[in-house]
Amino acid sequence: MIFNFVQTTMNHIGKLMLLTALLSSSVAFGQLTEDPEDRRDQGKDPLRTQTPEGRPLPFGQRLRFGGGINGFRFGNPFSLGVSPVVAYQATERLLVGVGGTYNYTRYKGYTTSGTTVPLETYNQFGGRGFAMFEMIPAILPNLYAHGEVETTTIQVTENQTGRKASYGLTAPLLGLTYSQPISRRFGINLTALYNLNYNQNQSLSQAIYGSPFVLRLSFF
């Protein structure tokens, strides 16, 4: 009987210790992943890579997702593009990421009867890797030096003949980005870049960029 009592007591103690360990682990995990937005209560900006206690944020909480709509034109030509982005907050001041681009453009011409017919269709695919470094946050917060390499391929279809051609171009771009934060992991970004590989005498360079200057409005 005494043995049974001791065994029952030990079982209860074991269960209590297991429950205590689980609760302790949950509390520790909650502290580790505590949202840095809590710093706003202290009158400070949220940390980008750490909790208020100084612990590093998990990988998933440093990721930022977004993109933008670009090349939007009605009329002739008609054009519409999208550019998804995935970015990672590597340090408090350094952001790195990758993005994709797709643009659809359609040119029309006029027949002798005055009606319009499709002449050419452009399908533009691209990918880019970029880095943004906040230069002088104490004086100009949220202003980043921005560098990236973008690779673009254009597939051109002549609608009347069905003839197709494909061209590619790689461009290094340098410039600035101003980011207006909406939350710790999302903001509105205005980017101005200069294409170091632009050639005004190259038709492909003009078809993709139009000028050596690239302006973007994105959200991530």
What does this structure look like?
By secondary structure, the protein is α+β, with helices and mostly antiparallel strands. It has a single domain, classed as Porin (Beta Barrel). It contains two helices and eight strands. It has helices spanning 2-32, 203-209; strands spanning 63-73, 78-89, 94-110, 116-134, 143-158, 164-183, 186-195, 213-219. The chain has an eight-stranded antiparallel beta sheet. A hairpin with a 2-residue loop joins strand 6 (164-183) and strand 7. Residues 1-10 and 15-33 have low confidence and may be disordered.
Shape: elongated
How many β-strands, per DSSP?
8
Major sheet description: 8 strands, antiparallel
Q: Terminal Cα separation, in Å?
A: 67 Å
Keywords: Signal
Protein name: Outer membrane protein beta-barrel domain-containing protein
Biased composition (Basic and acidic residues): 37-47
Region (Disordered): 33-60
Question: What's the topology here?
Answer:
Blueprint: H1 2-32, E1 63-73, E2 78-89, E3 94-110, E4 116-134, E5 143-158, E6 164-183, E7 186-195, H2 203-209, E8 213-219
Antiparallel strand pairs: 1-2, 2-3, 3-4, 4-5, 5-6, 6-7, 7-8
